[in-house]
Design goal:
Chain lengths: 948, 435
């Protein structure tokens, strides 16, 4: 039998031929035809036209044929709901068939037909099948309830199927139990608050019994379900652990990982001094190591999980370093993960071995892997102080290889080593300087420049070195430019006499010839600082830097806890909470580890944002965004002692809008002038350097920059009354002045046209060039009467935002062409971005929180608005008038914090936090947006609105 | 759960596509093809997220199997399932190839319908599946047969059917070990472990209850303490081995192993893998490789490699192969070896030295001169490790089968009537020496 012939492409008229064959009297021919149909369906051809003919073949006692027809039905029923009804009778009949395999087949297939009318007919047969005498039918029916729930949840509840499903947990057949558990777990996920999976010690006991008897897959369902249970006390926790540990010897890796998940979670509840706790820890290591002899794909999943486990409980695998040594033939994804775990396990005891390995890896072929290996050596130096010296000498050896990317990577990590151990390894600087010319990556160049600037006093020719970089200043990336500016200023402060010329050169390059606002601002700050108070400048620029932390890239403790609860799943592979990649409500419930019993902190750890166990690594400083999130969380909850867990769910729709908006904004870049596009594109990268205090910037300097951000803003570009846009001189006597307004959700351009020429003007028309937000006239320019000399006419032109998009410089620039009977005239004007603030820009609190956290901190910008004499409520009202909505308000130590949201016409959300110090005229504004280009303009609008 | 399952050929043409969930559309089929199969650079991860859809893939020769989902599924389970599915397909129609898949697509759809329901894996034991997915239809089955099938598919012993009869009750035990080594050029063991498998072929009647015993240190020590005879106490020191970890076929009662460390089970019929284990202590390394690489100027390398066999002289190692990597800019190689045959294989960038047989406690040597083309490539040659393949007739971990007892209370054969065969094979896993 060679079925492959069905895959061969056939000619036109195929459908007709198939139709004839399907209606043939010969059974064999019929079956052949159905096979052909299925093959066509597989390769993506549309064979839905054959629906009635295929369904006609359903009434058969040939099981193979029946299954094929069912397969077809599942695919096309949705597109042909009316005809699908034809199949119902056969299904209902099949559900009564004496053969259990046929009954199960019918109920299994019916559940896959997503047609409302059919689901109604499904209820009765399903009810019967759930109570069928044969376990095979019952286990199939159990899954069918989940299918039906996916189509029509209400129907399932109304029909009482959920209770029947719960009863199946007590079924005598282990596979029925497992499938019922799987179905219930899935249904419960979409009803986060229902008590559907009512887990109590009795049901847990049933599950544990079934665990010993069911198939490997069933064991996974049961273990995953068990992981959601929270035992009442440490004794129950221990007894469950004891019954789960045998699963660690299962041949199926997924069973093992799910068992590990249950144990890791329930271990939290065991007192640490308990003997059993130690035994359990010891039992966990061998199975985890065994996972590494599985197939590479599973190894990858295991390694991603081990990465989490090692961060949570380093003691489990601390003696198992060797098994993570990379094998020459490992796939690259396994190699990279092993390397990561090696660094996490590195300690004084094993550092010699680790270093020897890393050095070996640094000579391999794969560039990514080699880079990571070099970086790992640096991380070892920072982590294990005793090894720092050896690491540095290893890095120097690697620099001697002169392999370009190895050298660059080494220099980047050596910079970090200098930060961690100041005044210790500076002797290597000479070697580093030799490689100056070979550096072509911005990060390495910036690192090298930082080193030169920081140690300028020890490098004789520091000025020459820096000068050499200065030659191509404008071709450098922003990162390098900023670093170079700072380094030269440092050099100047250390050796003022010889380098005056150099510093002037760089300051003028940065302030006058650059169109990058960050660079300009930083240049201005330095300039003013140096010219007003050199002593203060010295204190700021050469301030002592805080040491960098030991452990880098640890996962934030709250997230780590959540991920531990998701061991084995995709979340643990991505190292992201499910809400970050799952749509809808499914799986967005945050899971938490249970509190440890008897430690007295159980009440506390149920608070939001508080990590349960106290031994969680505290080295990580939560980013500003997280802090803000937590504060907001507290604010949102009722002011009682027990704070219910707020679940920041994410609205995916909004996210996608954001993405789309950004794309269209950036996509517009094509065709625009490349240099402008590039400079704007680089802006976000420069932001964090200026605001977050890059390594080169002293702590105090960061604040100064904020000030600078405010000072350097071009202000006063917008005046609410009409401004002159087109002088009569330039337009053969036509003078145009105008302004923009948003009235009742419609953007209008108010124009005054004045005829200063001698003759009458007629035939007015207007057109816009493509612009950043797609503004375009929504109608023609209505100048009905001819414009006689010295006459002025006022026109309002409604605008839409559905025109073609191109990114402009500045962003709010609008190029306009006006035509009359004399000529075509061009002018450009700038509109306040507040025009684009739409009326439905009020974000849900939860969404706001989630979005705020989700936007990278790099996109955040801070501004100050001065001379505002309003209290926060008045400000809030005023802002609301311009579609800037206050989401929440909070008062901390006399400071009012307002959380605001704006939505632009293209779907971009702009979030802001405004701090108002009572009695002070200065407002501080932090703006976060997916498209950071708009930040500056949004700030201008705040200022305008608040001041007028 | 799994939302859909696709099988592609190497060109990215879809051979099988089965969608289980409504959230997976036809475009997912194309997304995987475009982003993974046709991707320009090498695959960097077996899990790919494309537009909020996750794709898990494994490759068997040039066939891609991909499972798709939009939910937070159990990733380990998905991969285990994909492997299982390959096993099932292999058991039904042999090698997984485009030809075979196209020839059996109806069967594959039938299997997929059975072993995956709404994305939840169901019973996927080939033994059970073969009783009712036959491509022959099931008309002929009697009522008893049907209920027997369903009870087997859903039952506690899903891997064995009742009523098996053999005239001769026989079983074969193969202890298959692969010994892995990574050694430094100086002869220091960087890492070494044995991963072993006990594969059983059982041809036993009825529902036999089996008990398997080996020289597991924990068991022997326990018995020693229990105060049994002297000789078991004596032998425990030398003869027993420490097993780091082991995993078992689902027929083994894990709770019993956990509490008593005894391995008891009712075996599937025919061949299956009873257990896997791993040891790291006191491994017998059958061969030692001593490399010597000398760079003579920039255009010549001198390589000398000595191999020593380290086991009883009466035993013979077979299929010995030493692979000595050569730089990419090799222009010519001269080899002299005392034993076996050696050849420079330019396409593989290696000298391959093959020896058919070698007894224990012997040594042999190869020396080669490698001429290099001068290059201006700054990057140094990465010097991949020298790897070795071999097969030896003993278990490098030291594992010994002590007994395999068979009880079948209902039928009239006893443990003594069963013919038992035991065989030990040690093979090289990744057996590498850096040079």
């Amino acid at each position: 039998m060679t079925d492959s012939k069905y895959f061969t492409t056939t000619k036109k008229g195929e459908i007709f031929e198939l139709k004839a064959e399907l209606n043939s009297d010969k059974k064999e021919k019929k079956k052949e035809a159905v096979k052909k149909v299925i093959a066509s369906m597989t390769v993506g051809k549309d064979v839905s036209a054959l629906f009635p003919d295929v369904v006609n073949c359903m009434q058969t006692d040939n099981l193979e044929l029946k299954k094929l027809v069912y397969l077809y039905l599942m695919n096309y029923a949705k597109s042909q709901p009316d005809m699908a009804i034809m199949a119902v009778n056969t299904f209902v009949k099949d559900c009564e068939d004496p053969n259990p395999l046929i009954r199960a087949l019918a109920v299994r297939t019916m559940g896959c037909i997503r047609v409302d009318k059919i689901t109604e007919y499904l209820c009765e047969p399903l009810r019967k099948c759930l109570k069928d005498e044969d376990p095979y039918v019952r286990k199939t029916a159990a899954v069918c309830v989940a299918k039906l729930h996916d189509i029509n949840a209400q129907l399932v509840e109304d029909q009482g199927f959920l209770d029947t499903l719960k009863d199946l947990i007590s079924d005598s057949n282990p596979m029925v139990v497992a499938n019922a558990v799987a179905a219930l777990s899935e249904i419960a996920e979409s009803h986060p608050n229902s008590n559907l999976l009512d887990l109590n010690p009795q049901t847990i006991n049933k599950l544990l019994t079934a665990l010993n008897e069911c198939t490997e897959w069933g064991q996974i369902f049961i273990l995953d379900c068990l992981a959601n249970y929270t035992p009442r006390d440490d004794r129950e926790s221990q007894s469950i652990c004891e019954r789960v540990t045998p699963r660690l010897s299962h041949a199926n890796s997924a069973v093992v990982l799910s068992a590990v998940k249950v144990l890791m979670k329930f271990m939290e509840m065991l007192p640490k001094d308990l003997d059993y706790y130690g035994t359990l820890l010891k039992k966990l290591a061998p199975p985890l190591v065994t996972l590494l002899s599985a197939e590479p794909e599973l190894q990858y999943v295991a390694l991603r999980n081990i990465n989490l486990i090692v961060q949570k409980r380093p003691e489990i695998l601390k003696h198992e370093m060797k098994v993570f040594f990379v094998k020459y033939n490992d796939p690259i994804y396994v190699k990279l993960e092993k390397l990561d775990i090696m660094i996490r396990l590195a300690s004084q005891a094993n550092i010699a071995q680790v270093l020897a390995e890393l050095k070996e890896y640094a000579t391999e072929v794969d560039v990514d892997f080699v880079r990571k290996a070099v970086r790992a050596i640096g991380r070892c130096a920072i982590k294990v102080e005793q090894s720092a010296e050896r690491c540095v000498s290893t890095l120097l050896d690697l620099i001697q290889t002169k392999v370009n990317y190895v050298v660059q990577e080494a220099i980047v990590v050596i910079k970090d080593i200098f930060r961690k151990y100041p005044n210790k390894y500076e002797s290597v600087i000479a070697t580093l300087c030799e490689n100056l010319d070979s550096l072509d990556e911005p990060e390495a160049r910036a690192a090298m420049i930082w080193i030169v600037g920081e140690y300028a006093e020890r490098i004789d020719n520091a000025d020459e070195l820096l000068e050499s970089f200065l030659e191509g200043f404008h071709d450098e990336s922003t990162q390098v430019q900023l670093q170079l500016l700072t380094a030269i200023v440092k050099l100047f402060l250390k050796k003022p006499t010889e380098t005056q010329e150099l510093v002037q050169q760089v300051l003028s390059l940065a302030t006058q010839d650059s169109d990058n606002p960050d660079l300009r601002d930083r240049g201005y700050i330095y300039w003013r600082l140096l010219s007003t108070d050199p002593v203060a400048a010295k204190e700021v620029v050469l301030a002592e830097k805080p040491l960098i932390s030991e452990e880098t890239d640890l996962i934030e403790p709250t997230l780590l806890e959540e991920l531990i609860c998701h061991i084995g799943t995709l979340a643990s592979v991505y190292h992201k909470p499910p809400s970050a990649f799952v749509e809808g409500s499914r799986g967005v419930q945050h899971r938490r580890l249970p509190p440890r019993a008897g430690s007295g902190e159980s009440a506390e750890s149920s608070d939001v944002g508080q990590s349960g166990p106290s031994e969680a690594p505290s080295a990580v400083i939560p980013s500003q965004g997280d802090l803000l999130g937590d504060l907001l969380n507290l604010d949102l909850a009722p002011p009682t002692a027990t704070v219910p867990s707020v679940q920041p769910s994410m609205q995916m729709g909004a996210m996608d809008l954001l993405g789309g908006g950004l794309d269209s904004l950036l996509g517009g870049d094509i065709g625009g002038s490349p240099s402008m596009g590039a400079s704007l594109g680089a802006a976000p990268a420069a932001m964090p350097a200026a605001l977050g205090g890059a390594p080169a910037v002293g702590g105090g300097l960061g604040d100064l920059f904020d000030l600078g951000g405010g000072v350097g803003m071009p202000t006063g570009a917008y005046i609410a009354p009409k401004t002159l846009w087109l002088p009569a001189m330039k337009a053969k006597g036509l003078e145009i002045s105008g302004t923009f307004a948003r009235r009742g959700g419609i953007i209008q351009m108010d124009l005054s046209l004045t005829n200063k020429a001698m003759s009458v003007m007629t035939d007015f028309a207007i057109q816009f060039n493509r612009n950043s937000f797609g503004m375009a006239p929504a109608g023609p320019l209505q100048v009905l009467t001819p414009l006689s000399p010295n006459q002025t006419i006022d026109v309002s032109l409604p605008l839409s935002t559905s025109g073609p998009v191109m990114k402009m410089e500045p962003l709010n620039n609008l190029q306009v062409a006006v035509k009359n009977n004399i000529d075509v005239f061009y002018f450009s004007c700038q509109y306040p971005i507040s025009l684009l603030f739409v009326e439905d820009g009020k974000m849900e609190r939860q969404v706001f929180l989630a979005t705020w956290k989700d936007i990278p901190n790099d996109n955040e910008a801070q501004f100050q608005i001065k001379d505002i004499h309003l209290n926060s409520d008045a400000a809030s009202n005023k802002l609301q008038g311009s579609n800037i909505f206050t989401i929440a308000k909070r008062t901390v130590e006399g400071q009012d914090m307002l959380y605001l949201s704006i939505k632009l016409t293209n779907g971009i959300w702009v979030l802001a936090e405004m701090r108002v110090q009572t009695g002070s005229p200065i407002y501080t504004l932090s703006i976060k947006c997916r498209a950071p280009e708009v930040n500056q303009f949004v700030c201008q609008c705040y200022e305008l609105v608040l001041k007028n | 759960m799994i939302g859909g399952l696709f099988i592609y050929n190497h060109k990215g043409e879809v051979l099988i596509s089965r969608v289980y969930r409504d959230d997976i559309g036809r475009n997912a089929v194309d997304a995987f093809r475009v982003n993974v199969i046709h991707a320009r650079q090498q695959v960097r991860s077996p899990v790919t997220n494309i537009a909020r859809t996750s794709f898990f893939h494994v490759k068997r020769s040039n066939i891609w199997l991909a499972a798709v989902t939009k939910q937070n599924v159990n990733a380990a389970m998905v991969f285990e399932f994909l492997y299982k599915m390959c096993d099932v397909m292999t058991a039904y129609f042999g090698k997984i190839s485009e030809e075979n898949i196209k020839n059996n697509f109806v069967l594959i759809y039938e299997l997929l319908d059975e072993i995956l329901d709404f994305g939840y894996p169901q019973n996927s034991e080939t033994g059970a599946l073969k009783t009712f997915i036959t491509q022959q239809g099931i008309k002929s089955q009697t009522k008893e047969e049907q209920s027997q099938i369903t009870s087997q598919v859903t039952g506690q012993i899903g891997w064995r059917r009742e009523g098996i009869k053999y005239r001769r009750n026989e079983l074969f035990l193969d202890v298959l070990e692969s010994v892995n080594l990574l050694m430094s050029p100086q002869g220091q063991v960087l890492s070494a472990h044995v991963s072993g498998r006990v594969v059983m072929k059982s041809y036993l009647s009825g529902m036999p209850e089996c008990k398997f015993g080996m020289n597991d240190k924990i068991v022997i020590d326990k018995q020693g303490k229990g105060g049994t005879t002297d000789d078991s106490g004596k032998s425990s020191g030398k003869q027993s081995i420490a097993i780091d970890d082991c995993t078992f076929h689902q027929c083994v009662r894990l709770s019993k192993f956990d509490s008593e460390r005894s391995i008891s089970f009712i075996p599937p019929d025919g061949e299956y893998e009873l257990m896997r284990y791993r040891t790291t202590k006191d491994i017998i390394l059958p061969f030692r490789v001593i490399p010597l690489v000398r760079e003579v100027g920039r255009t010549k390398l001198e390589v000398k490699v000595v191999i020593k066999s380290n086991f009883k002289p009466s035993l013979l190692a077979q299929k010995i192969e030493v692979r000595i990597p050569t730089p990419l800019n090799t222009s010519g190689v001269q080899v002299i070896c005392m034993k076996g045959k050696a050849k420079y294989k330019a396409s593989e960038n290696a000298i391959v030295w093959k020896i058919k047989r070698m007894a224990g406690m012997k040594e042999s040597q190869i020396s080669a001169e490698i001429e290099l083309l001068p290059t201006n490539d700054k990057k140094k040659w990465a010097r991949p490790p020298i790897s070795m393949n071999f097969e030896v007739p003993f278990a490098p971990s030291g594992l010994k089968v002590r007994y395999l007892k068979v009880f079948e209370p209902k039928l009239n054969y006893s443990d003594h009537d069963v013919i038992k065969w035991v065989r030990y094979i040690g093979r090289s896993g990744i057996y590498e020496t850096r040079c």
